[in-house]
Write a structure and sequence with these properties.
Number of domains: 3
Shape: globular
Number of strands: 21
Largest sheet: 10 strands, mixed
CATH class of the largest domain: Alpha Beta
Strand content: 15-25%
Number of helices: 16
Helix content: 25-40%
Structural class: alpha/beta
Distance between the termini: 47 Å
């Protein structure tokens, strides 16, 4: 089997490429020249790709291969199915599917000649951490799962994708559209898991959904299309999630802080970048669990992992033993390094107000004696415009906010709001905000104003803002 990935350096695409390569397929792809956080992983896995998009790239790779032994996978970015490489493949009779379709096909296992037990992790927030956590715990328990996680690296496992010998396939289940024009079906509808985790429902992707009710309906469609024996593990504290689970009429395990849930978290305590908490199941005390991640939200996220492991028969003692060994993922409250003067530099992928609020609150609790300097790069003009007031309110726990120009999505056709307007609106309400356009000037500001042990710099956003932290450390040598 030969698989060609158009847009191979995106985190979701790269993880699938790694799975395919480890499964024994011949893999290649293409992407833009910009450096991605997945470059190192692709190189390590010896997955070669072409720089730029050209029909010559894909023609050379597919030349001489039979059509039924070739699959072309395309991301929604870079023109989607309209990308010239996809156009060439289609005109020459090769099968093209979207990233969402590919995740569904990989999860089914048919392409690999096996059958997986699929576990889909959905929700507006927390998908990556939960998917990585479950994948890590199963791996440490010698169950060797396959998984596709929306990050370049899982600590300590390595790449965000893996083809395992075990029976489980763990995947993020994304509610975003599959393809720009031809297939606007939510990605997760291509998955058919035996276990569906729904962590929360929130209004994101305003370029696709008009309102929160549409988002809720998409999740309901997902739950309803699954077999009657599917297990739903859901955040019972989220009213919309609970309503969907009840409408779907499937076996359900709920988790959260309210006493009405099956799994209940209590007595949360944070110790630097680690935490500890108590868990009960149906009123029975399961004892304390340690997690090597900060933040109440991460402790709560771990409940669905505990629920799943209990469901498949893992003893509580084993779960408690392996839980602290999960060290997080790339770009999720990641400790990047520390300067010679003691300035801590961290990075976080948060690009939605709810994610920003939770990440900043976790850092404030973890480092109460440090002033937090957040360098934020908004992601997509449509999201920023729709949620601008929520964005402004979400930075309550930062001492200084440096606002960068918006990192526009390649899927956006036009700017509905300008960066000057965004900064103006922030300054109307908050007095600790400055706008800096160029990365070099941000680095100079940090070097001159906050390079000491009393501060913590957090780069935040879904674009390339993380490069700033590494540049600060590079200049500090």
């Amino acid at each position: 089997m030969y698989i060609y990935f158009v847009g191979i350096k995106g985190v979701g695409m790269a993880s699938l490429a790694v799975i395919a390569k480890q499964a024994g397929f011949e893999v290649c792809g293409s992407d833009i020249a910009d450096e991605f956080i997945t470059d190192k992983i692709l190189q390590k896995e010896k997955i070669f790709f072409k720089t730029g998009f050209s029909s010559d790239n894909i023609e050379r790779f597919l030349k001489g291969h039979l059509r039924d032994e070739v699959l072309v996978v395309s991301s929604a970015a870079n023109g989607g199915f309209g990308n010239e490489e996809c156009v060439w493949a289609r005109e020459n009779g090769f099968r093209i599917i979207s990233h969402g379709q590919a995740v569904g096909e990989f999860m089914s296992g048919e392409i690999f000649g096996k059958k997986f037990k699929g576990v889909s992790v959905s929700g507006a927030h927390g998908k990556t951490t939960i998917t990585a956590l479950i994948s890590t715990l199963l791996t440490l328990l010698d169950l060797d799962p396959s998984y596709t996680v929306g990050t370049s690296e899982i600590f300590p496992l390595g790449a965000g994708g893996h083809f395992g010998k075990g029976e489980y396939f763990i995947a993020e289940a994304d509610e975003y559209l599959s393809e720009i024009k031809e297939d606007r079906k939510p990605k997760f509808l291509y998955q058919n898991p035996e276990v569906l985790i729904v962590n929360n429902i929130d209004f994101d992707h305003p370029d696709f959904y008009h309102n929160l009710d549409e988002v809720e309906n998409a999740y309901l469609d997902f739950a309803n299309q699954l077999g009657k024996n599917t297990l739903l593990i859901v955040n019972g504290d989220d009213e919309r999630v609970r309503k969907i689970a009840e409408k779907a009429k499937k076996r359900m395990i709920t988790y959260g802080v309210h006493a009405s849930n099956n799994l209940v978290l209590s007595d949360f305590r944070e110790f630097g970048l680690s935490s500890s908490f108590n868990v009960s199941f149906d009123k029975t005390d399961l004892g304390r669990f340690d997690l090597s991640l900060p933040g109440f939200h991460n402790a709560k996220n771990s409940l669905c992992a505990i629920a799943f492991l209990m469901e498949i028969g893992i003893p509580i003692s084993k779960i408690r033993e392996v839980m602290p060994k999960f060290l997080g993922t790339k770009r999720r409250l990641e400790m990047v390094g520390e300067t010679k003067n003691g300035l801590k530099i961290m990075d976080d992928y948060a690009h939605h107000p709810e994610e920003i609020r939770k990440s900043l609150n976790a850092l404030k609790e973890a480092f109460p004696d440090r002033k937090i300097i957040t360098i934020f790069q908004p992601h997509t003009y449509s999201r920023t415009k729709s949620l601008l007031s929520e964005f402004i309110a979400s930075f309550i726990d930062t001492n200084k906010l440096i606002l960068l120009p918006t990192f526009a999505s390649k899927r956006e056709s036009s700017n509905s709001i300008m960066d000057e307007e965004i900064l103006l609106e922030f300054n109307k309400i908050k007095k600790n905000v400055i706008g800096i356009e160029k990365f070099d000037n941000v680095i100079k500001y940090v070097q001159q104003n906050v390079n000491d042990k009393d501060h913590l710099v957090l780069t935040m956003g879904a674009g390339d803002v993380y490069e700033i932290g590494y540049q600060i450390l590079k200049h500090d040598k």
